[in-house]
Amino acid sequence: QKEVEQNSGPLSVPEGAIASLNCTYSDRGSQSFFWYRQYSGKSPELIMFIYSNGDKEDGRFTAQLNKASQYVSLLIRDSQPSDSATYLCAVDGSSNTGKLIFGQGTTLQVKP
Amino acid sequence: DGGITQSPKYLFRKEGQNVTLSCEQNLNHDAMYWYRQDPGQGLRLIYYSQIVNDFQKGDIAEGYSVSREKKESFPLTVTSAQKNPTAFYLCASSSGGNIQYFGAGTRLSVL
User: Fold this and answer.
1) CA distance B14 to chain A (A)
2) 3-state secondary structure chain B
3) Which one of B98, B102, B103 has the shortest CB-CB distance to A32?
4) Segment A4-25, tens digit of pLDDT
5) Do B94 and A98 touch (CB under 8 A)?
6) A35 contact partners, CB below 8 Å, separation of at least 6
7) How far apart are CA B100 and CA A49, in angstroms?
8) How many Å apart are CA B102 and CA A104, to the nearest integer?
9) How many angstroms separate the CA atoms of A14 and B61, rounded?
10) Burial of B111 (0-12, 13-18, 19+ CB in 10 A)
11) Per-residue pLDDT tens over the stretch B31-64
């Protein structure tokens, strides 16, 4: 059974700090990795995707991928209260079906 | 205005009743997906379709059925065989690269 693991949290950081969200996955064949943000009661919103080892930056967000360690992370710089949400990590199932496997999500709380 | 439209936003099911959740997209995406989300949980795949007139079971297909007669539409029926249907149902679509975009969701409850 292919798995994606996240710490459910909550992760609490003060406003302006760096929030670090982590995700591990079991399938070594996975090629694409996604971070979604989900506000309470709302649907997931794509915020980052990464395909290659290393870092990918987009504004205050940085996704980091280490395929050898089967580890993907999301850094949020200068965290704002509006970043408070659940962050879902998703990984492709490596079977060329377009299917994604989701972690249970990490709840982030940014305190003013 | 491109996007994925799910309706209704809220739905109530009586015992023994089948209900159908609508998902329509105007993004010209080939692939569509249905997920179920329970409180505090991640998303679990119910069914997916990569092309019109073809669909595949996901991890939790029992008690659900789908059709894909048009590229734009992928309705999900929750049948009476699904004994625990209360959940948040999410439809997604994708044009490739495994990038999926979600509709606003339908919240289903049992009366």
Assistant:
1) 23
2) CCCEEEECCEEEECCCCCEEEEEEECCCCCEEEEEEECCCCCEEEEEEEEECCEEEECCCCCCEEECCCECCECCEEECCCCCCCCEEEEEEEECCCCCEEECCCEEEEEC
3) B98
4) 999 988 999 999 999 999 999 9
5) yes
6) A21, A46, A47, A48, A49, A61, A63, A72, A74, A87, A88, A89, A90
7) 11
8) 17
9) 42
10) exposed
11) 999 999 998 888 999 999 999 999 999 999 999 9
- Both structure tokens of A104: 């249970």
Q: Which residue has the tokens 């209360």?
A: B86
B47 vs B34: CA distance, rounded Å:
5
Q: Please provide the size of chain A in residues.
A: 112
